[in-house]
Amino acid sequence: MTTVLVVDDHPVFREGLVALVDSLGWARVVAEAADAGEAVTAALAHRPDVVLMDLHLPGGNGIDATARITADLPDTAVLVLTMVENEDAVAAALRAGARGYLVKGSSRAQIARALEAVAEGETVLGRGLGAALARLSPRSDGLAAFPQLTEREREVLGLLATGASNGEIAGRLYLSEKTVRNVVSAVFAKLEVGSRAEAVARARDAGLGGAAPGLGT
């Protein structure tokens, strides 16, 4: 059973998240918090597997709370769920130790899938937020080696380099497998390679392939 701490200063939204988590069958909420200080205190007291963390909180902010929690509880995964949708916030959350970042408005299925993924050690970003990874070293240099690729194609190439299957990439980026296949084909054409192995070799030569824990080959 995956244990979860829910952190949000809006009671109605927090209650909805609690109900969602408790409805999953494989997870349960062990504590709630409405501000940054409460979040840290509750995390240390209950040592949850996952913290669902808002960013705008009274008494501090979710980034600082995330940093304190992940420093003291490295086995606890923080999944940010917030209204803030920009690369700076995503990059800051990841630097603070968050394993996932979703925006409010994500579906129940997306939240549930992300909860399960971060609990298993994966890093999950909501749709359109993957470009923030390019702001974090060492991936930025590797991605910069492929200026001919679009943002989405770079995201997919980075995951290909980790050994991820099309299904795993689809799950990470909230895409259909058909879309992933089309993007992979576009990557092959732009890199002028004829196989997945060649694309992976090119990506790894550029330094990609070591920044996506939890993905199988």
UniProtKB/TrEMBL annotation:
Record-listed 4-aspartylphosphate modification sites: D54
Coiled coil: none
GO biological process: phosphorelay signal transduction system; regulation of DNA-templated transcription
Domain spans labelled HTH luxR-type: 142-207
Alphabetized UniProt keyword annotations: DNA-binding, Phosphoprotein, Transcription, Transcription regulation
The protein, known as: DNA-binding NarL/FixJ family response regulator
Listed GO MF terms: DNA binding
Domain Response regulatory span(s) in chain numbering: 3-119
Domain of life of the organism encoding this protein: Bacteria
